[in-house]
Design a protein that fits this description.
With about 100 residues, this protein is mainly alpha-helical.
Length: about 100
């Protein structure tokens, strides 16, 4: 399970950083909702440059945007083979913060 989490983190970062990674992902996981994947990648890329350098200089890790977390949930669900649950995962992740 730990390996799957690391793979999901690596894929999320690759999908955001590299344009060609999206085609590779679709080849490996064709059941992925392509429109949702593209939308999350696009939004995560838009959110990334807005990180404030002040928090980094204070030794605090910058908080990632919602699309960044939702992309991780989508990737994790596809890797673990529960692609049908991708719509529920982002909401579950947010609710866990309040539990």
């Amino acid at each position: 399970e730990k390996l799957a989490l690391h793979q999901a983190e690596q894929w999320r970062d690759r999908l955001i950083a590299q344009d060609g990674a999206q085609a590779e992902w679709i080849d490996l996981y064709p059941a992925t909702d392509i429109q949702q994947l593209r939308a999350l990648i696009r939004q995560a890329r838009k959110d990334a440059p807005t990180e404030n350098n002040t928090t980094v200089s204070q030794g605090l890790a910058p908080r990632k945007g919602r699309a960044y977390r939702e992309l991780f949930a989508l990737v994790r669900a596809q890797i673990s083979g529960t692609g049908a649950d991708t719509d529920a995962d982002p909401a579950d992740e947010d609710e866990d913060d309040h539990a």
